[in-house]
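We emphasize that the prediction below concerns an isolated chain of 771 residues; any contacts that depend on oligomerization or on bound cofactors are therefore not represented. The input was used exactly as deposited, without trimming of termini.
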Amino acid sequence: MSLLLQLNGLFKPLEALEVLSPGQMAELMVAPLPGLSDKEDVIDGVFDYLAPSPLDRRLPEVLQSVVMLSAQPGIIPCSSYKVLFNRMDRLIPVVTVALETVITSAKTALLTRVPPGCTIYSGECNVTPINETEICLNINSTALQHHLDNRQASGSLCNFSVSQYACAELSTLTAEDLVTLFTCKMNEDHPKETWKLLITKVNPILGHALDLFNGTMLTASPAVSHVLDVISEVSFSTFSTEHVRDVAYVNRWFQTRLRPFLPFVTPAFLSCLATKNFTCQTYQDVVQTLGHRYGEMADSAQIQVYTDFIEVFLSKKPVAGCTAGIANSAVWLEKNFGPFSAAASVLDMQRLQGSFSLMEALPRLILRQLVEASVTPGLLTSPADVTTLLQRVPDPLLASYFDMLAPAAQGISIAAPLRSAMLQQVFERANLSTASVPDSEALVWLNDRMAFLLPNLSPDHVGPYFNIIRLRQCNTSQQAVALLNTTLPTLDDDTQAQVYSNIIRVLTEPSPLRCYGSGSFYSFLETSFMGFGFPNLTTFLSLIPASRKAEVMNSIPPAQVGSFLRRPGTVDDMTKLCQIFDDYTQTPQFLETESVPEAIQPHILPCVWPRALAAGSPAEADLWFDAALSRYLRYLNKDLVSYAVLRDARCLAFRKFVAATENHNYTSSDFTQQDVYSTIHSYLSIAPTPRCYNASLPQLASTAWFANYIGTFIEFTSLQDLNTFGGASLQPFTTNLANLLLFNQTAVPLNVTNFYVELLYQQNPNFSPVQ
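Result of the prediction step, given as a token string:
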């Protein structure tokens, strides 16, 4: 700012406030700058700019900059501190509680830097200088003087101007004449100096005239304010100490003489009034008299009565605060503030009465003050205090209370028991679980009004919280869970468990899958449960109605099935594991690509084994046995290799089974090779024989029948078995090289070998072993 003023001597910063930064506005108010000697007017100008839209015009940043600048010793004079505090005090009743907190913080910081001997709340009586020669220059009062001297009809008194009266000799003017003059001239605009010259001349009859004028109803005008100001300058200056301590005298002036003017009190009038040495009784009488005109005052005047008179007067009584004979803090507010207590902050009340009790004062506090008390550390000390305070908030204003409280509570630590008590009031009184409250309104409560209350949520409050959303639109319930999820680190295990249980209820009531539409069901559950755990297998299955099981399960890609089964503690009941795969069409891909805990793997094979045995094509059989089951065949057991299980196996699948069991590690199995052969024997004994051979079907036309369907288990075969398997009908297989190699490399009973050789030469009499 200093550089701007140096670069342009004609620069008028008060005309450029909208383009100045917060730091520049602060500097403008408090820093010593060339050409800006009247700092009080500058401060008023800046606050006049900031007041209509304090957030948009960045009042918090301006105050922060003022506090920073005040750290320089002596930079702000006492007179500037007084104006700063007065303007901040005027803002408090009209801004949000959140912004009030900012202002209060700035006041607290600045109070520590007030110069020694500087009394912020002191009041002052302004003196309007008058020079009759200058005022009466070019004013001709001759006709008026003649009129007064000859006592013509009083009705014509209004034909002369206030300036003419001020410049005349008024010794013959009566109180009745002055009443007439007041009546007809109060809507005319004349300088305050002119009015003061007039009032000074008529001061001897002023009191009587005001007695006569007291029933008049005035309207706001500059003249009314000027007259009140000059009356205080002329008449108050004559009040003796005895006068201001005399109840009858004070009441005569304020209840009678000044009565028409009181709705239009000015800062100058109130500031001067605050300097008078009233007793507590006469002060309280003045407050009550002003209070009777409260409803006729402009909002700004109501605030100024507090900031310029009440606060200043009580600040000068730091010990007693006019508490003598007063039963409690509510009565103290009524007596000493009247209706103007609405303009005070709760912190002001504490400062002005050392023994102030919030609980006692609650009946006299307005909504804004109740909110302020709720976020001021130390004022509410127990859940009972919270309940008592909120009982002073009518149900229709409960939403407004939380609209104000939520932003004010940001950055302020409210103890968990107090927040819990506030939340209880919401559950009991806001009726948010009723259908009459639309989802849009419920979301405003959840996201804007209640969010700050949810950290450290009590287990007892989880149910009421979910009652709000239980039957609402799915998007609403999902947002509510997401809001709780943001508080997850603050929630104890019991609360998290309660949230988990209630999410399940939301997903299943009034009908299962109410909120599931399409897409991965696993992703849907992740979104639904968020950080509050995930259903175990039993619960997972219970969420899916039987009629939609295939659809829902097949919405989940294999990678997510793997993720599900890898979650610790997911498989709570191994007997239910197979239900995952019953209708799951992507089981082979899952088995091939996904790893699961080793404890689960043995239980998966029985689930998928029947499907593997049902493979009807070479590609399908290869997919199951060469890829999908490659990691699971080691878990084959006696039951799975039994004929009871393999009886209906498709031929190509059975062929793969034989190959798999040839290479099986029998040292850790509960079945033997003989057990496998027993199954092979039973399987191949089923007519028509030879089983699994059909020359007209390419996939079953292979003559490597012995290698494919008996393999190395041929060592357990007897001659009788071969006859059972087909006897002479096995002859076409004997020349197959794979079969020949099998018989050549395996210890086969001699009679079996002889039978095979016999069939071989019958098939090919020219067969040569050396070929």
